[in-house]
Amino acid sequence: MKQVLFLSILLAAPLSAGASTLQVAEAAPHADVLIYGGTPAGIAAAISAGRHNQQVTLVEPTLRLGGLVTSGLSHTDFRTFEGITGSFLELSQAVQKHYRDTYGPDSPQAKGNFRGTHAEPKVNLLVFEQMLASHKNIRILRSHVLDAVALGRDDKTGLHHIDAATFTQPDGKRIELRAKVFIDATYEGDLMALAKVKYHVGREGRDVYGESLAPENGDAELQGYNFRLIVTTVESNRVTPQAPPGYKREDFLPLAELFKTGRLTKAFGKQGEPIVFKAQDPQLPHGKYDVNDVSRGLVRLSMPGVNTAWPDADAATRKGIFAEHRRWNVGLLYFIQNDPSMPEKVQTEAKRWGWCKDEFIDTDHLPPQLYVREARRMIGIKVFTEHDTDHAKTPTGHDARAVLHRDSIAMGDYGPNCHGTAHDGGLFSGRHTGEFYKPAPPYQIPLGVLLPREVDNLIVPGAASSSHVGFCALRLEPIWASLGQAAGHAAHFAIAESTPVQKVSALKVQQALHAEGAATVYVSDVLPGHADFAAVQWWATLGGLHGLAPRGDEPGQRGKHFFGQYFEPFPQHAAQLDLVLTKEVAKHWLALAGEMKLSADPLPQADGRTTRGDWIRAAFKGR
Question: What is the pLDDT of residues 355-378, one digit of tens each?
Answer without folding.
Answer: 999 999 999 999 999 999 999 999
